[in-house]
Amino acid sequence: MPRHSASSRLAAFSRTFLCLIGSGGRASKGRRTATAVALMVMATASLALACSVPVFRYALEHWRPDSYIAFVFHSGDLTTEQQAAVDSMQPLGADGGPLTNVAVTVIDVAADTDPVTQKLWQDHQSEQLPRMVVQSPPKWGPPQTIWQGEFNAKNAAMVMDSPARAQIGKKLVEGESVVWIFLECGNQDQDDKAFDLLTSELKRLQSELKLPEIEEEDLGDLSVNPDALKIAFSAVRISRADAAERALVEMLLRVEPDLMDAELSGQPMAFPVFGRGRALYALVGKGIAPDVIEDASQFLTGACQCTVKAQNPGVDLIMNIDWDGMVIPTEPLDEDLPPLAGFSGFGLPDDAADSNSVDTASAEEPDVLLAQANDVTDAAHDDSSGSQDVVAAKEPAEAGDASQPVASPVAASDAVAAPSAGMGQNVMFVLMFLVIGVVVASLFFMPRTR
Prior knowledge:
Strands 6, 7, 8, 9, 10 and 12 form a six-stranded mixed sheet that branches. A four-stranded mixed sheet has the order 3-2-4-5, sandwiched between helices. Helix 2 (29-49) packs antiparallel against helix 15 (414-445) and helix 13 (350-356) runs antiparallel to helix 14 (364-385). 43% of the residues lie in helices and 12% in strands. It has helices at residues 6-22, 29-49, 55-62, 80-88, 115-124, 153-160, 163-173, 188-208, 246-252, 262-265, 290-301, 323-326, 350-356, 364-385, 414-445; strands spanning 51-54, 68-74, 102-108, 131-135, 145-150, 178-183, 233-238, 269-274, 278-279, 283-284, 303-304, 315-316. The protein starts with 5 loop residues before the first helix and ends in a 5-residue tail after the last helix. It folds into three domains: 6-49 and 421-445, no CATH class; 68-162 and 334-385, Glutaredoxin, CATH 3.40.30; 163-326, no CATH class. By secondary structure, the chain is an alpha+beta fold. 34% of the residues are buried.
């Protein structure tokens, strides 16, 4: 029996319900009811959105990276070379959609009178023009400046790509589960010890961890045969002083809000990167420990408990890679869930939710501009991904090459399997609501303790 079947998930949630509510016997009946309602909502969402495909593979096939915004400030006309540099930051894929997760906005500070862009320029103005300011995706909340400096072809290329990112992207496309970035602190002895610990633990975990068994109803979420999946870890070591990696280092140091604090900035860091260049979180100093490394590895190689990208931890990096051309998904790329009705604060449009989360005194107006630019990029991606609902089989480079996508083994039988799959889902939800009914009933018959 599959280890992550719908029935096993239901049993796990049932135990969680009864355990948490039972332990709340000292709480008031109203608090127990509130706890039960919250847990029911969580269980319903998880049961509906959980998937037995490993997190790293689901992310690779279905989670489109969030778009950074590159503002190019200039005065007067751009030169031919400068315009070529702008164009180099907006490459198009084979389908005509944006190739990278960067949206470029060009602003003439001498002619532009928009108060929003003028405010943005005032916050970053310099005598050196043209100038580039790269900010984090608006979906993350208040924009953070990832990099700023002179705009030229060299700096544009450094923002878009780097040797380390090219190496990481190649490994992920070829089937590695997770590629760890080890960011040196500059103390060689400290760096060597932490890197040796990281690589030795990854070697151990690679041989000990097991992939979840893929359920039949989840095979449609894979563009490869489940037998082709593997657990493979590696680590890429980079120096903070490497000029070619300046943009990458700045992005990594903003994966979490306190990584640039004095107490952390002088320590080595490790970032597990998976999917389409998504960094999970940072392990810092003594946090680069066997148990923490194992926790991250288990999560990324385990079954995807929520397939909605926004509900999962992690921060996307800028990667100049044609993911859609190299990894052909069986379903359209990750879409936002429809609004939830009846809950205060939910159901708002993405741009409204983002603007509510920022400091209105300092970031509200620039966020509007950022969100508009990001929406353009997302719309272009959505248009190009809508046709990707059929797997296009690729010939492997050589016999037995597990890294090359192959047709889903169930693609030909989808029409036959659809009715039975639908019945299975109905049975699961009937069972789920029966459990919920039992839990609610228990609230009124559970003995109260003092």
